[in-house]
Amino acid sequence: MAAPNTPSRDRIVAGAADLISRRGLNATSIRELAKHAKAPLGSTYHYFPDGKQQLATEAVRYAGTTVSRILREELDAGPVAGVRAFLALWRGIVVKSDYHAGCPVLAVSVEEPLTDEVPPSLVAADEAFDDWQRLLAGSLRAHGADADRAEGVAALVVASVEGAIAMCRAKRSMVPLELVAQQVETVIEGVVGESA
């Protein structure tokens, strides 16, 4: 979550991402999102005149770009380093929240939309997952992996880590993430090693 001295709009977005990662989108009101961000409700409506869905979309984009930035920086050292950073980020969030928080991108993705239309927050979630996968696949290719294998392994990593986060929260244990970490590193080393 953003620091209290962060500008109000940014603090509201970060707070919304945190609350969505804990409760999901459908279980929160815009009033609760504002309260969690320690922001006045009036400011929340000022910055997000279209309401909760606009705020949720921004929160998902915030989470997605934050993770993408970390991945991009760490992938410079190689795909294993990038995945380790990806895992460390989620491990930190889950443990720090005492297993109450997970990934806001996943939280929005697994909820049933309230209407038949695809909500913008779900589109933002799809974009975040695609970006993470694209970054991982690019790193794998840059380190010698075949293009098709790189795409498949990148999807495997994102899906495995996201699923492991949910399992960790349910079990109140980091064991699922640790097991996934071992397996995805082995897979990545094998794919990159195939070209050596």
The backbone outline, from C-alpha atoms, is elongated
Mean pLDDT metric: 91
User: Could you say which structural class the secondary elements and strand pairing correspond to?
Assistant: mainly alpha
Order of helices and strands: HHHHHHHHH
Query: How much of the sequence is in beta strands?
Result: under 5%
Q: Could you name the ranges where pLDDT drops below 50 across 5 or more consecutive residues?
A: none
Radius of gyration from CA coordinates: 17 Å
According to DSSP, the number of beta strands is 0
What kind of assembly state do the chains in view correspond to? Answer: single chain
State the end-to-end CA separation: 42 Å
**Major sheet size, sense and barrel closure:** none
Q: Helical element count?
A: 9
Helix content percent band: over 70%
Question: Could you give the topology of this structure?
Answer:
Layout: H1 8-23, H2 30-36, H3 41-47, H4 52-75, H5 79-96, H6 104-110, H7 120-142, H8 147-171, H9 175-194
Helix pairs in contact: 1-4, 1-6, 4-5, 4-7, 5-8, 5-9, 6-7, 7-8, 8-9
